TrEMBL record:
Source species: Kutzneria kofuensis
Keywords: Cell membrane, Membrane, Transmembrane, Transmembrane helix, Transport
Keyword Transport: yes
Alphabetized InterPro entries for the sequence: MetI-like, MetI-like_sf
A GO cellular component annotation in the UniProt record: plasma membrane
Main localization category: membrane
Family under the similarity heading: Belongs to the binding-protein-dependent transport system permease family. CysTW subfamily.
Protein name, as recorded: Putative spermidine/putrescine transport system permease protein
Pfam families on file: BPD_transp_1
Length: 286
């Protein structure tokens, strides 16, 4: 009887998942399959590797290099700064105002991107921005800094990378039990030794996993960079948009699919690393 009840419960759970699975299949599965198949087809529908060859050469290879550089840099800076903020907040009283404010702000800022974010930065620290003029009135000239270059994109990406890191790493910090620190202290371990031998090794996998998640998040970002630079910086998503909008030579219509396949592989590898790192410490930090 118990086995029958358990089977019925699993069937009901699966039935409840069907709408979500259907949504994923239609809006994620079908487009992904279409991109993968199209990457290996020519204009006439025949099978070819020419699209992948074109995607692996310039200027598209350079776009992958630039996207990787920006993603790695913003992921590293965002991970370190976000960890420091989350560590400071975790030391505050549970349920306090500081935790609530930081959690709410991080949840909002992590998903504030696209055209509104680009406009906000241009209005703030653009060549005619409010902050630029205020600092100029104080004798600090930042007019030489450009939002439309590598440094500008990096700064704008950090706006949502740091809050995302706070959201991702905070549960791992909360999972560090006070009993472990007390046990280490009772055994004569100093604060530094506790973090080196206990806390650090436990936080390293979720930290590396969060680093990979931030890398994937930056690599796949499109709207912010497109609105800010108008395609000046050759990022992979911008190159894909240019190809899909018809800015290619005749017979290269599936080049965008090949670029999309490369982007899918990069993001999938980063997310797979994130999931693997999360599983390594899930039984300890829960």
């Amino acid at each position: 009887m118990a086995d029958l009840t358990s089977r019925n419960r699993r069937r009901l759970d699966l039935l409840g998942l069907l709408p979500f699975l259907a949504y994923v299949a239609v809006f994620l599965g079908v487009p992904t399959v279409s991109v993968v198949v199209g990457a290996f087809q020519d204009d006439a529908g025949g099978w070819t590797l020419s699209n992948l060859g074109a995607a692996a050469g310039d200027p598209y290879l350079h776009a992958f290099v630039v996207s990787t550089e920006i993603s790695a840099l913003t992921a590293a800076i965002g991970a370190v700064v976000g960890l420091a903020i989350a560590f400071a907040v975790s030391a505050s009283p549970p349920g306090g105002v500081l935790r609530q404010v930081v959690s709410t702000a991080s949840g909002v800022l992590a998903y504030f991107a696209g055209v509104p974010l680009a406009f906000a930065f241009i209005a703030a620290i653009g060549s005619q921005g409010l902050v630029t003029k205020w600092l100029g009135a104080l004798g600090l000239d930042i007019s030489g800094f450009s939002l439309f270059g590598f440094a500008g994109i990096t700064l704008v990406y950090l706006y949502f990378q740091i809050p995302l890191m706070v959201l991702v790493i905070f549960p791992a910090l909360e999972g560090l039990r006070p009993q472990w620190r007390e046990a280490a202290s009772n055994l004569g371990a100093s604060r530094w030794q506790y973090w080196w031998l206990v806390g650090g090794p436990l936080l390293l996998p979720p930290f590396l996993g969060a680093l990979m998640l931030l890398f994937a998040n930056a690599f796949a970002a499109y709207a912010t960079a497109a609105a800010l630079t108008n395609g000046i910086i050759p990022l992979v998503p911008i190159q894909i948009a240019a190809v899909m909008s018809g800015n290619v030579a005749v017979g290269q219509e599936n080049l965008g699919n090949a670029l999309g396949l490369g982007m899918i592989l990069v993001v999938a590898l980063a997310l797979a690393g994130y999931a693997w790192m999360q599983r390594r410490t899930s039984r300890w930090l829960r």
